[in-house]
Amino acid sequence: xxxxxxxxxxxxxxxxxxxxxxxxxxxxxxxxxxxxxxxxxxxxxxxxxxxxxxxxxxxxxxxxxxxxxxxxxxxxxxxxxxxxxxxxxxxxxxxxxxxxxxxxxxxxxxxxxxxxxxxxxxxxxxxxxxxxxxxxxxxxxxxxxxxxxxxxxxxxxxxxxxxxxxxxxxxxxxxxxxxxxxxxxxxxxxxxxxxxxxxxxxxxxxxxxxxxxxxxxxxxxxxxxxxxxxxxxxxxxxxxxxxxxxxxxxxxxxxxxxxxxxxxxxxxxxxxxxxxxxxxxxxxxxxxxxxxxxxxxxxxxxxxxxxxxxxxxxxxxxxxxxxxxxxxxxxxxxxxxxxxxxxxxxxxxxxxxxxxxxxxxxxxxxxxxxxxxxxxxxxxxxxxxxxxxxxxxxxxxxxxxxxxxxxxxxxxxxxxxxxxxxxxxxxxxxxxxxxxxxxxxxxxxxxxxxxxxxxxxxxxxxxxxxxxxxxxxxxxxxxxxxxx
Length: 484
What we know:
By secondary structure, this protein is of the alpha+beta class. The chain has one domain (about 65-480). It is built from 17 helices and 9 strands. The strands form 3 sheets. A 4-stranded antiparallel beta sheet has the order 2-6-8-7, with helices on both faces. The chain has a 3-stranded mixed beta sheet with strand order 3-5-4, with no helix packed on it. The protein has a two-stranded antiparallel sheet with strand order 1-9. Strand 4 and strand 5 form a beta hairpin. The longest helix is centred in the middle third of the chain and has 24 residues, at about 255-275. The chain starts with 8 loop residues before the first helix and ends in a 10-residue tail after the last helix. One of its GO terms (cellular component) is plasma membrane. InterPro entries: 4Fe4S_Fe-S-bd, 4Fe4S_Fe_S_CS, RDH, RDH_dom, TAT_signal. Keywords: 4Fe-4S, Cell membrane, Iron, Iron-sulfur, Membrane, Metal-binding, Signal.
């Protein structure tokens, strides 16, 4: 068992070659704090921005006008998207024969694992995963974009006008409502913001925006959303209670619970808005929603929920890559926008590549293959178009691996890389933020890339990048999880 380091901050800075001059240069870009509580509480003077108003973030997370990844949505063509049905790979990815073979492999893998008591696939592993997917009375029903609008008390039943508040007041109201259920990072964006190009092409071909009073489905089954719902609420579910559990088993119930919680509080938010007098339309990654509708990772990056990185999902701080995938809710409730953020994540990815090294599917390019992101990326049924300078990931290989080796058949039919979450749990930005040395490292990374390669090596030497053994997976049901 590894013990915690007792090295002081000053000794650590000296050990990595940052003397007093380098520390002073960092001080020029960082605000002065008397203690850590003051550091995490900056911005209390209440100016609305994504780093202080929506979530407490360290001083080294900076707001920027445009994302650190180069994006040009003028180059984007609407994505055809997967079939709304979960449990099977969409035909745009693989043939029916390939799908049948993958599902057969999954079934055989589950049976063999249970019979042989294989760590990660024992009886209680599998039942725990499936039980975590159950949402009570709704079971495995996929929520429609418009929600169920089932709230019994509304402004109309009370005989009062609908809620009217300023954009900032509405932003805080939504933040409070979501956080009481355990929501993670929250961001706001607008459909009519053309700062990186027109955003309407971000919607998949089975979703269309029109100047209608309410939603409808056209004769081809396309979901038509009112254009007035131009305000986007981007929600990340909270990080798992222990990100390392993703490394212990791909079937961690925590992963499924966080998805189901996100589904539940998304539905609650829709009822809340409906009761106040506003429409809302909810899109998710395909696990729990009827339509994926639009890519969640892009909106997370545009709204400052996280920064682009080698994995493709928005890596956030202090949540890290262990935060799960986003949900998006479009509404006609007026809201401000939150800016993109920069804490050095993309720059760090250029020399790190730990996520690629631990990816069991080979879906993420290694540093040797692609140090820098590129515009020259092959498109295919899983990639709409080259609308950003990114890493050429192979999402379909990630999904295929998950279908073959995970327990549940509720793997997504369309998603960015990261379904099994091994890449996310090994990301250096997912490390425990309560350890001061990790915060010092992140502060240095946000200020200068000089030490990035060294920090990657330190992460490896500390054992963070090790893949959990079968013995480690077997300990899953014996670990102590603190109450939250």
